[in-house]
Amino acid sequence: MEYTIDKTLLEPRIEEEVSRVADEAYSETGSLYDSIVLTEKDDSLVSRFIDEAVNGLAGRLFDICKKGTGKLVFFVPDFDPTMEDTAKDEITNYIVYSVCVAIFKSRRAEAVPEYEGLALGALNKAITLLKSRKVW
C-alpha cells in the first residue's frame, strides 16, 4: 500500500484544527485568536512539522514502512484492500494531529493533551489496520 504525502491536502486540515482551537481561546483580556491562528509566515514551520510527523510515523512502523519521495510505502502483503481508505484516513489524522501538537506547544499549551490523545489514537488505529491480515 502507498500513502502519498500531499501537503496541499494536509495543510488545510491543519489550519482548520488550529483555527477551531484559536476560536475557543480566551483570556481575561479577550480573544487569543490572533496569537494562535496560522498565517503565511508559518508555512515553512507547518511544512517542517509535517515532515517530522511523517518521519516519526515511518520510524514507528520501520518494520513495514519505507519512506520514498513524497510517499510512504507499506509492505503489508496480507493487508485487506477494503481497509485501505480507512488506513489512509488514520495516517492523515495522525499527521494532522501531530502537527497540531507541535504548534500548540508554543501557542496553546492547554490543547496539547487533547491533540496528543487524538494523534496517539489515530496512530494506534493505523497500526492496527496496517498489521491486520485479510480474513478469507
Multimeric status of the protein: single chain
Ends: how far apart?
Answer: 19 Å
Shape: elongated
Tally of separate domains: 1
Q: Low-confidence parts, pLDDT < 50 over ≥5 residues?
A: none
**Fraction of residues in helix:** 55-70%
Q: Give the ordered list of helices and strands.
A: EHEEHHEEHH
Total number of strands: 5
Biggest beta sheet attributes: 3 strands, antiparallel
| Average of per-residue pLDDT values | 94
Radius of gyration: 16 Å
Work out the strand percent: 5-15%
Q: So how many helices?
A: 5
> In order across it, which strands form the biggest sheet?
1-5-4
Structural class: mainly alpha
What does this structure look like?
The protein has 136 residues and is mostly helical. It has one domain (2-131). 61% of the residues lie in helices and 11% in strands. It has five helices and five strands, in the order βαββααββαα. It has helices spanning 7-23, 33-36, 43-60, 84-107, 112-131, and strands at 2-4, 26-27, 30-31, 65-68, 71-74. Strands 1-5-4 form a three-stranded antiparallel beta sheet, covered by helices on one side. A hairpin with a 2-residue loop joins strand 4 (65-68) and strand 5 (71-74). Helix 1 (7-23) crosses helix 4 (84-107) and helix 4 packs antiparallel against helix 5 (112-131). The longest helix is centred in the last third of the chain and has 24 residues, at 84-107. It is elongated and about 60 Å long. The mean pLDDT is 94.
